[in-house]
Amino acid sequence: SYYRLLQPKKKIVYPAKIRLLLQAYWLIIVCIYLVYSFITSDWGKSWIVWPLSALTYGVIEVVLKAWRLGKK
């Protein structure tokens, strides 16, 4: 079982447009966080953006992997 855990994962290669969107995702989240925080000055509550965006990103990746594997 250790041998299996130490094996490198097979990477799923996404099309260029999807890779670009996944890379831009975090930049968009940072912009949303900063704009909201500066406009409302509510730095104590705006941190919730990070766990929510991480969960959303995870869901997006699972959906994309299922879509990509289903295409083969």
Automatic annotation (TrEMBL):
Chain segments annotated as transmembrane: 20-41, 47-67
Top-rank lineage group of the source organism: Bacteria
Keyword annotations from UniProtKB, A to Z: Membrane, Transmembrane, Transmembrane helix
Protein name: Transcriptional regulator
Source organism per UniProt: Gardnerella vaginalis
Upper classification of the organism: Bacteria, Bacillati, Actinomycetota, Actinomycetes, Bifidobacteriales
